Recover the amino acids of this structure.
C-alpha cells in the first residue's frame, strides 16, 4: 500500500450500486482514495469519475485489476460476473468488496471461497443491512442473551409491484441466478441468520412462482425495462430452513404479489426469554414483566451516519487490521447454498439436505 497509508480503491461497475460505493468511499477520504473506475459502458464510468474526482477510467475490469494503483476492488456488476472478477482480483493480490449475492449460485460462491481461503486478502460481501442501526441494536441484545434461545424466526420482504429492470440482467436467469429470492431475499436471509447467531443450516424446503413477470405485470421503478429482453426468473418465493440446533427460519419474498403489504423488509426473532422485530428501519424488543407483555421500541438515532458508511469503514478497517469481515466469504457461500437448495426444492418438490462438502 502506498500513497501514505490510504487504501487505493478501484470500482468495477458504474451503475446504480457502483455509484453508491463511489459516493460512500469518497466521503472517507482520510482512509482511502478511489483511484480508478471502469464499466462496460465507458461513458458511465467517465461520468462517475468526473462526479467523484476519480483520476483514472480503466478500459476494462482486467486493466483495473492489474493496476498497481489499486489495492482493493469493489465489484458492482451483474451477478454472473461476481465470481470470475472476484477470483481474478484475489489472485492478483487485491482485497475485494463484492456486491450481493456473493455468487450467481453456490458453485460460483465456492470458487470465491476457495480463492479467498488460500489467500490473506480480505473478501467481504456488501450486505449493508447488518450495519443498520436497529439490527445492530437487536444483535447486541441477542449477544447479551436477552432473547434466550432463538428457536424460530420469520423474515421476508413482499413488494406488491416491484419487478426491477424487466428484460435486463435482473430478470434473466443466466445473468442474475434468480428473481426476488436472490435479489432481496438474500439480504433478509443473511440478516436473519446473523441475528439468530449463525446457526448451521442443514435442510431446506421451498417453492417459487412466476405469476407476474412472464405477463409483463408487476413492474417497479428500479432500473429501466428492456422490452426486447426476457423474463425467466421467479417473482415470489417461500421457504423453510432448518438448522442443526433444531431452530427454523421461514423466508418469504416477492417482487410482485396481490397482497396487503407495506413493501418493507421484516424479521421476527422468537426466543425462549424474549423476541425482537425489525421492520423497515424500526424495531421492537418483546419481553414480559409481571406476567404482562412488554414492548421496547428501537429506532434509528438522529444524525445516524448510516449503514453504508459503516459498511465501507468496516471494509477498510479489515484491510488495515487483517481481521475477517462480519460479512465473510463463508457467510456469502452459506447464503448461496441455501438459495440453490430453495430453487432445487421447488423444482423437485422435496426437502433438500445441504451438502457442506467444499471439495
Ligand atoms: N446492496 C444492495 O442493496 C444492492 C442494491 C442494488 C444492486 N446490488 C447488486 O449490485 C450489482 C449491480 O446492480 P446494479 O443495480 O448496480 O445494476 P446496474 O445494471 O445499474 O449496474 C451494473 C453495471 O455493470 C456494468 N457492467 C456489466 N457488465 C460489465 C462488465 N463485463 N465489465 C464492467 N462493467 C460491466 C453495466 O454497464 C452497468 O453499468 C448486482 O449484483 C446487484 O445484486 C446490490
Amino acid at each position: 500500500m502506498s500513497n501514505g497509508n490510504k487504501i487505493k480503491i478501484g470500482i468495477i461497475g458504474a451503475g446504480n450500486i457502483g455509484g453508491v460505493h463511489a459516493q460512500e468511499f469518497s466521503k472517507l477520504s482520510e482512509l482511502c482514495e478511489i483511484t480508478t473506475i471502469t464499466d462496460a459502458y465507458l461513458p458511465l464510468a467517465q461520468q462517475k469519475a468526473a462526479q467523484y474526482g476519480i483520476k483514472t477510467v480503466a478500459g476494462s475490469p482486467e486493466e483495473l485489476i492489474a493496476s498497481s494503483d489499486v489495492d482493493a476492488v469493489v465489484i458492482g456488476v451483474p451477478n454472473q460476473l461476481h465470481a470470475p472478477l472476484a477470483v481474478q482480483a484475489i489472485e492478483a493480490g487485491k482485497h475485494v468488496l463484492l456486491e450481493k449475492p456473493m455468487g450467481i449460485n453456490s458453485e460460483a460462491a465456492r470458487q470465491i471461497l476457495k480463492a479467498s481461503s488460500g489467500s490473506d486478502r480480505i473478501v467481504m460481501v456488501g450486505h449493508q443491512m447488518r450495519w443498520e442501526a436497529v439490527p445492530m441494536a437487536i444483535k447486541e441484545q441477542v449477544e447479551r442473551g436477552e432473547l434466550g434461545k432463538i428457536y424460530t424466526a420469520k423474515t421476508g420482504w413482499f413488494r406488491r409491484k416491484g419487478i426491477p429492470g424487466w428484460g435486463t440482467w435482473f430478470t434473466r436467469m443466466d445473468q442474475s441466478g434468480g428473481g426476488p429470492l436472490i435479489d432481496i431475499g438474500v439480504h433478509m436471509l443473511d440478516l436473519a441468520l446473523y441475528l439468530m447467531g449463525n446457526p448451521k443450516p442443514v435442510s431446506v424446503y421451498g417453492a417459487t412462482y412466476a405469476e407476474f413477470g412472464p405477463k409483463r405485470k408487476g413492474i417497479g421503478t428500479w432500473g429501466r425495462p428492456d422490452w426486447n429482453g426476457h423474463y425467466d426468473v421467479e417473482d415470489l418465493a417461500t421457504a423453510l430452513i432448518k438448522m442443526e440446533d433444531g431452530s427454523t427460519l421461514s423466508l418469504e419474498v416477492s417482487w410482485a404479489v396481490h397482497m396487503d403489504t407495506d413493501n418493507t423488509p421484516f424479521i421476527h426473532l422468537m426466543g425462549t426469554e424474549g423476541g425482537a422485530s425489525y421492520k423497515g428501519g424500526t424495531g421492537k424488543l418483546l419481553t414480559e414483566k409481571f406476567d404482562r407483555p412488554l414492548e421496547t421500541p428501537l429506532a434509528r438515532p438522529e444524525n445516524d451516519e448510516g449503514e453504508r458508511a459503516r459498511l465501507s469503514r468496516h471494509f477498510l478497517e479489515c484491510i488495515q487490521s487483517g481481521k475477517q469481515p462480519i460479512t465473510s466469504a463463508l457467510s456469502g457461500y452459506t447464503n448461496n447454498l441455501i438459495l440453490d437448495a430453495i430453487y432445487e426444492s421447488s423444482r423437485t418438490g422435496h426437502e433438500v439436505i445441504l451438502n457442506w462438502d467444499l471439495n
Q: What stands out?
A: The mean pLDDT is 97. The domain at 130-307+336-353 is CATH 3.30.360.10 (Dihydrodipicolinate Reductase; domain 2).
